[in-house]
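Hi R.,

Here's the chain you asked about this morning:
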Amino acid sequence: MATATPTDAGADNSADLALLGLMQLASPALPIGAFAWSQGLESAFELGWVHNETELTEWLDGVLEDGLSRCELPLLARLQRAWASGDTDAVHHWNQWLHATRETAELSDEETRLGGALLTLLRSLGLAPEPEQIPNQPGYLTLFAWTAHVRRVPVRQTLLGFTWAWLENQLVVACKALPLGHTAAQRIIECMRPRLVTTVDQALTRNDDDLGPILPGLALGSALHETQYSRLFRS
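And here is the predicted structure, written out as tokens:
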């Protein structure tokens, strides 16, 4: 009698481990404090720029188009490739460039604090870069790219994971501060999922001269949030 054996017995599981590593990195349960920041969204609610599900979807779509596709995502790809090739100079360059794009004290503080928290976590897990590789004030994006590199996540999947984490964080903010119901949040996810994919496609085609966010409304909202009288999120 023939005995059936699993077809994947002994198969290379590196892709599975990379996927799980990306899920861990993008998880809201990652203990780095990302839940404490609204990235200007709470101020948009307070100022009356965003009132409902439709307007929130439009806001998020604009941030994707004029922000993530032009800044965080193409920069994340460059940083991960620089880590992979051992190009420390490029890592330092793009980390400095990243800080220069943070237009308010709040956005700059978020980048630095989340980067520091992620570095602390990586050290506790034995996954941190060597000290001489780490740039001054490593940003969250810089260390997200490093972690994806260590986990052997393909660059495209890294960008998708980062974008998914951003969307989830923004919807958590909306559910707390708008308020937005959880079912409405899921409708927004269904609407935005194809946009996440096309945004990654756009980001991967950007030349260096094309980089830089075009988000004056978000920057203004973030600046006003720093002195907002009543708020749930950090500034």
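One quick note: The first helix runs from residue 14 to 26.

Cheers,
M.
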